[in-house]
UniProtKB/TrEMBL annotation:
Keywords: DNA-binding, Transcription, Transcription regulation
Bias (Basic and acidic residues): 293-308
PROSITE patterns reported for this sequence: HTH_LYSR
Protein name in UniProt: LysR family transcriptional regulator
Protein family per UniProt: Belongs to the LysR transcriptional regulatory family.
Residue intervals of the HTH lysR-type domain: 1-59
Pfam families found in the cross-reference section: HTH_1 (PF00126)
Domain of life: Bacteria
Chain residue ranges for the region called Disordered: 289-321
UniProt keyword annotation of DNA-binding present: yes
One annotated GO molecular function: transcription cis-regulatory region binding
InterPro entries: LysR_HTH_N, WH-like_DNA-bd_sf, WH_DNA-bd_sf
Length: 321
């Protein structure tokens, strides 16, 4: 039996002295109100109303139970109000500051379509875990090693001048005696200043004979992009970022590199729920799965690899040497 619905009908009928008027006030048909009151009487073991053709008059038993029924109905209405308020309470999510504003808006719109009011807040890589631990946000997209990643963003090198080759080899940046001026640099933006990206690139630079300063970590994406746009340096970035700066993107020749993410949440289970519900929208926001024609031509991947978004990390082969 629907105890709350039955008590709501009981209260409204008692206040109006009529099943017809009471049913209308309770937003149900007269027949439904009659059935619910009858079920409540059967459940409680005694009649609540003396019924006549025109009036419904409370019995002594009904009068004694009416205050408790009112409290139950009010408590149910308060619960429903709190639930509606909780659904509309924003869920703060810390995201990389590399996410384009239009994609953040689409992520928030996708969440609204699922009944969640998402509040994306951009933050630097090192700041995002701190925001979760200090409970300033409910969850955060954080950099994780590739074997722990849920989303993977391809990384390559971008330049002002369009390269003739389908891949850019770091070895080609090795200083030459015939070249005048300072050697070309690869700029690493703060989002990629994490061990599994920065250290791999640095070790590769050392192995192919680059000078230490040729792989440099910038203080901001703006600074890194400005260095590239004003000369012939290169930016380590995703295909989406390269398009934003009107740069020409190519994958690295010596190894495959990815920017890899997972979800960190303050409450157990929040990360899995957010990831399951918004996995595809988060992938679009990060640029995960984006792979330009240059990358596909240089290093084809299985179709399932290219199209998978928002799921567990795909299997990875041995990086090309």
């Amino acid at each position: 039996m629907d105890l709350v619905g039955a008590c709501r009908a009981f209260v409204q009928v008692s206040e109006r002295g009529s099943f017809t008027a009471g049913a209308a006030a309770a937003r149900m048909s007269q027949s439904v109100a009659s059935r619910r009151v009858a079920a409540l009487e059967q459940h409680l073991g005694e009649r609540l109303f003396e019924r006549t053709s025109r009036r419904a008059r409370l019995t002594p038993f009904g009068r004694s139970l009416l205050p408790a029924a009112r409290r139950l109905v009010l408590a149910a209405e308060e619960l429903e109000h709190e639930a509606a308020t909780a659904h509309q309470r924003p869920v703060p999510l810390a995201v990389p500051d590399t996410c384009p504003t239009p994609e953040l808006a689409r992520l928030a719109a996708a969440a609204r379509g699922l009944g969640t009011v998402l509040d994306p807040r951009t933050a630097a890589p090192a700041e995002r875990p701190h925001l979760v631990r200090s409970q300033q946000v409910r969850a955060a997209l954080v950099a994780v090693p590739p074997d722990q990643a849920r989303w993977s963003v391809p990384l390559g090198l971008a330049t002002v001048a369009e390269p003739a080759a389908r891949r850019l080899f770091l070895e080609s940046l090795r200083p030459r005696r015939t070249r005048r001026g300072r050697p070309r640099r690869v700029w690493v933006q703060p989002e990629d200043d994490v061990p599994h990206v920065r250290d791999r690139l640095t070790r590769l630079g050392d192995s192919v004979g680059l000078l230490p300063a040729q792989v440099s970590v910038a203080t901001s994406l703006t600074q890194a992009a400005a260095q590239v746009l004003s000369g012939d340096d290169l930016l380590l970035c995703s295909p989406v970022q390269a398009r934003e700066f009107a740069l020409h993107w190519r994958p690295l020749g010596e190894l495959d590199m990815e920017r890899t993410y997972g979800l960190l949440a303050a409450e157990e289970g929040d990360a899995e729920r957010l990831g399951d519900r918004l996995g595809d929208a988060i992938a679009h926001c990060l640029g995960a799965g984006e792979e330009p024609a240059e990358a596909r031509a240089a290093h084809p991947r299985p179709a399932a690899d290219r199209t998978r978004r928002g799921g567990p990390p795909h299997s990875r082969g041995t990086p090309s040497a």
